[in-house]
Amino acid sequence: MLSSLLMLVESNSDAGASAVGLLIVTLALYFVPSLVGTMKKKRNAGAIFAVNLFLGWTVIGWIVAMVWALTNDAPVVQVNQNYYGQPAPPAGSVGDRFCQRCGAHMGSRGICPRCTPALA
């Protein structure tokens, strides 16, 4: 197909120009999901492009890529962790005391059972 397209272009005929125009329009329509994903700055725009490139010809793959490109990204959840990799205590905990080093509950004595096991 590409060789016949090149032959049409070389002949400088109107058919060659229209064939090139048709090819450009077809490629533009084929990659609409990838363009939408890129324009929306999706985190997974590369994966959308891969699905579009390899499975877009199946129509179902094109629809999947288009739906994926049009959906909104889930918000990024950021978990604050302390030095030891454990979740930090909730901010503003009323009446609770947590160790600043490891985040463990210190209890009523105010001594961390993890950091000072001999004293706990």
Tags for this model:
single chain, 120 residues, mainly alpha, 2 domains, 5 helices
Explain the overall architecture.
- This protein has 2 domains: 2-70, no CATH class; 83-120, no CATH class.
- The mean pLDDT is 80.
- The N and C termini lie far apart (80 Å).
- Helices cover 47% and strands 0% of the residues.
- The longest helix is centred in the first third of the chain and has 17 residues, at 14-30.
- It has helices at 2-10, 14-30, 32-39, 45-55, 60-70.
- By secondary structure, it is an all-alpha fold.
- The relative contact order is 0.08.
Secondary structure elements and pairings:
Blueprint lengths: L1 H9 L3 H17 L1 H8 L5 H11 L4 H11 L50
Short description:
The termini are far apart.
- The end-to-end span amounts to 80 Å
Please tally the β strands and state the result: 0
Estimate percent helicity: 40-55%
Structural class, by secondary structure, is mainly alpha
On the 0 to 100 scale, the average pLDDT is 80
Q: Helical region count?
A: 5
Segments where pLDDT lies below 50 for 5+ residues? Answer: none
Strand content: under 5%
Gyration radius, rounded: 29 Å
Largest sheet: none
Q: What is the domain total for the residues?
A: 2
The shape, in one word, is rod-shaped
> What is the string of SSEs from the N terminus onward?
HHHHH
